[in-house]
Structures are given as C-alpha cells and as structure tokens.
What does this fold into?
Amino acid sequence: MGVPAPKTRRNRRRMVASQVAARGIKSRRVLASLAWVPREWFLAPHLADEAYDDAPLPIGSGQTISQPYIVALMTEALAPRRGQRILEIGTGSGYQTAVLAHLGAHVYTIERLPDLLVEAEERFRRLGLPHIGTRLGDGACGWPEAAPFDGIIVTAAAPAVPPPLTEQLAPGGRLVIPIGDLGAQELVILQRTAAELVERHAGGVRFVPLISRLAFTEGEWG
Ligand code: SAM
It folds into this structure.
C-alpha cells in the first residue's frame, strides 16, 4: 500500500479533526485509517470537490457512500484487530471496506448490485489493498463458507437482525447494524459472549434499506 493522493491529504486531516475526532471518535487507528483512504477515489469525478463534506453522497443506482463520521462510528464500534475476519454487507462504493482493510482486517464484502461491485473492486486494486474478498449476492444470508467472523458490519438498514448473520458471528465477535424503518433507525451493536448476545445502542442513523429475499419482519425472522 502506498500513500495515496497526497494533494488531498490536508483535506482528509481536516475532515478527521473537525467531523470525526471532534464528535468523540477516539480510536487512533480508526482516525489514521480515515486520514489515509482518499474518499474522492470512491466518487464520480464530478463529486470529487465534495468528497470531504460532512455528508453522505450519491454513488449511483440510488445508493450512497456514508458520511465519514458514520463510517468512523461503525468502525470504532466494530473494533477490528489486524488479521481478524470481518464480513461487510453492502459494499457500495467500497469506502468502508477500504477503511477496514487499511486497519489490517481480512474483509469479506457482499454487494447485491453488480455495477457497484465492479467499480469497488477496481478501486481496491488501484489502492493496492490486500485481503479483500468480494461477492455478488444477498448479504442477509451471510457468507457461510467463510464463517465464523470476528466482526460483521451491515451498511444498510433492516427491520431486524438477519438470523444467518448472528449464526455466523464468532464467540467474542461484534455485529454492527442499523435497525429500523426508513424513517428512524438505531445503530445496534451485538456482542457474542459465551452465553448470549449482548446488545447496546449507539444512536440514530439513516441508511438505505437492506434489500433481501429473506423475510423482513422481526416476527417472521423470530
Ligand atoms: N458502505 C458503503 C460505502 O462505503 O460506500 C455504503 C453502502 S450503501 C449505504 C448500502 C449498500 O448496501 C448499497 O450499495 C446497496 O446496494 C447494498 N445492499 C442493500 N441490500 C443488500 C443486500 N441484501 N446484500 C448486499 N448488499 C445490499
């Protein structure tokens, strides 16, 4: 991995200080990863000037790249360590994937839209990021052949946690997922302990919906 886009390094540092650290993200590793990944590489050229804005941005096909602060919040909640196996649902632009891979995680990422996945794969190659596996499909089913995972991050909102994902979470592992409908969602963090799944909440978020062939009401998934 080289040091990409030195011209925009100052913009990234400013973004990390004013949008991310200032809102309480403390992990130095997470801050350093956001300061390294060139967000403009994950956007169409006409949006490059907005790359370090404090906002989600369109990436085509009706989808969005998340706001940098939300990427940092979810990454800090996941707390991936070097060499850990992380499953990501919703590759999108690949920005969140790149942040995780730069932290040394081995990332398995699933996207349902082929055009987005092809573009993200090209970005990973260009950045020389190692240890990223990609798959086209319904991420709500997880990636059973590669399970269990030390962490699972879902970057689209579901009304409830898809059961295959909790089944594929290793002991001690964390699952980070926005839960709710299009109006109001809560960032939920589940941690698998020896006996149970411990749940905590990390505030309100707003994501595009997880589209899955699995049933989508808690009762049906119950
Ligand atoms: N993390 C992404 C990034 O950094 O650009 C942003 C992800 S975007 C908010 C949500 C993504 O989830 C979209 O690309 C969407 O196509 C994808 N998605 C929705 N439902 C999915 C599913 N069941 N399986 C896989 N991907 C899904």
The CA atoms of residues 3 and 83 lie 21 Å apart.
